[in-house]
Amino acid sequence: MIKKSGEYLGMLTQTDIEQSFALETTTTGALMNYPIISIDVSDDVEEAKKVMEQHKINHLAVSRKNEIIGIFSTKDLPN
Q: How many domains in the chain?
């Protein structure tokens, strides 16, 4: 998660970093995903999977009362 002045700006994943060719001259802001796609902590796994498929992403921010409390990844999905 990229945060500035108390506000989340975007998400930077390992895949974003691996796909960058010039890491020493690239900023995190240039690589981060924006806007942050999130689900509520009370949403079920099927909803998370649906949102990730819809947005073609592998990571979701998990929030409670509009505060990000964690990250959910496709690696967290049951087989």
A: 1
